[in-house]
Amino acid sequence: MSITDPALLKRLDRLRIRIRAARGHRPGETPIPRTNQPWGVEFESYKDYAPGDDFRYVDWNVVGRLNQLLVKTFIAEREIPFHLFLDTSASMGAPTVDQKFNFATDLVAALSYVVLINNDTLRVVALSSPEKGRQPFRALPFLRHRSQFTRVLPFLEALVPAGKTYLRETVRAYIEQTKEPGVALVVSDFLTDRAQYEEALAFLRARGYEVKAIHVLGASELDPSRLFRRGKLHDVEDHGERWITLSQANLRRYREALQAHMDALQQFCHRHQIVYARVSTANSMTALMTEGLPQAGLLALR
What we know:
Elements lengths: L5 H7 L2 E3 L8 E12 L5 E6 L11 H7 L3 E10 L1 E7 L12 H18 L3 E7 L9 E3 L12 H6 L9 H11 L5 E6 L5 H13 L3 E8 L1 H4 L7 E5 L6 E5 L2 H24 L3 E6 L4 H11 L3 E3 L1
Helix pairs in contact: 5-6, 6-8
């Protein structure tokens, strides 16, 4: 996996996942916006002194100038639980030439590394197809130290994309078994009915998760003319087949349908305060982690 590249790891060491609303109960190193505490590293504001406040944090310069007893407060830092959901449905493996699933697993590995180097809690969850008695998801136990990153790569490498997309059912099954909300990052191509992804993301929001959606698209999905001109298309999930000639009219209709799909997902996320990032397999992982995802508001410098 490209995540093992030392040059990439050096860049990832400088990053953290941005937090807007998530909260954690344990002291940690992740700054929580709009939340303060009476001790810490990064100064946030002042408050009037109250009995019991630590005199070490009284600002005596302010006392001398204003004759007012004020105590410094600091930006709260907590350990945040991160839940990284990876869609493992069959569409994530198509078209083969795009290597979309390999790209997605590399992305999840990179995000996992960022979580662990910031000393937050990580759980990687593979959302599978609950057909024929299969489990709706597979998950690692919660990992809490950067040394445990070695458990992430074998877990991801063992996954194979298969089955239909059931984001709604698999996310609901996970939520019902997990009592520690935090940040949920959903990595998927979202190639499913609109109700499926909307309800899945809404479930997470309703249970108190701060949700971030990473929409993975193959380079050939964005530009199918690079893949074929005429041929039989096979639906890897529904197993339907259709002969297609990629005429200018058909290509235009395809692009309009794809754009409508992308716009609908993005607009839903914006309405529900879900950070949305669209990524392509044409991007390098380094460019994505250091430029694309920071620009989307998902990553920031430590």
